[in-house]
Structures are given as C-alpha cells and as structure tokens.
Amino acid sequence: MTNFIGYGNEVPAPPIRRKTKPNMSKAEKQQFYSQKIQKDGTKIEDIPSEFRTIEVYVLALGNVKNLAEKRHVVKLMIQDAKEYREAGIEEKAVVLESLKGLVFGKVTMQENSENRK
C-alpha cells in the first residue's frame, strides 16, 4: 500500500450538516430564524427573505449597536417592502415602511445625543 497523497488510507468526507431540519413547518422555520437572530447574532441578510418578519427585523435592529449597521438593516427592510408592494402585498409593505420611520426617528435622536457629547 502506498502513502502518496490521494492514495492508500483515504478518510471519508464528513456528513453534510443542514442548518434547518428538512421537515420543519413554515412556523417552525420562522421561530428557528427568530431564535438564530436573537441568540446567535446572525445577520439579517443571512435570513431568507420569506422569513424576514417584523419580529425578525426588530430583533435584528436590537442586536446592532452601530448606526451604520442599523441603516443597513433598514435598507434591507425597504428593499423587502418594495418587493412586497410589487407582489401586491400592500399591508406588509406599509408595516415595514412604518417601522423604518420609527427607526429613523430613533437614529436621528441617537445622532443628536452623540453630537452633544
């Protein structure tokens, strides 16, 4: 038996690990992604768009401390709102845009307090 690279005692590849269980319902996947953002600090762009709900956005905004990161999350939120509007889901688009208004109001207040220091 030879010991050249690629010959002889080969080690089998490790099994592929899935991030979610294959038979999870949509509600279970939604909860999975909410927990992932809350506990693991997963970034919002790593969450599939169909699971980016208001709750997930609020959790993501709560996890970021940097104003630039908050703006990034809001930019993704507005992008999702546009997609909802194009798909004819006006209610979800309006809710996301309202959340944007709340966040930008808070961001403006934070910027003002930081400038006073």
Protein model, in words:
The protein has 117 residues and is an all-alpha fold. The protein has a domain at 26-104. The protein contains 4 helices and no strands. The chain has helices at residues 26-40, 54-63, 67-86, 90-116. Helix 1 (26-40) runs parallel beside helix 2 and helix 3 packs antiparallel against helix 4. The radius of gyration is 21 Å and the shape is flat.
Largest sheet: none
Tally the helices: 4
Rounded to an integer in angstroms, the radius of gyration calculated over CA atoms is 21 Å
Q: H/E element string?
A: HHHH
Q: Name the helicity range.
A: 55-70%
Q: Please state the structural category.
A: mainly alpha
The unreliable regions are none
Molecular shape = flat
State which percent range the strand residues make up. Answer: under 5%
Provide the residue-averaged pLDDT: 75
In short:
By secondary structure, this protein is mostly helical.
Per-chain topology:
Layout: H1 26-40, H2 54-63, H3 67-86, H4 90-116
List keywords for this structure.
117 residues, 4 helices, flat
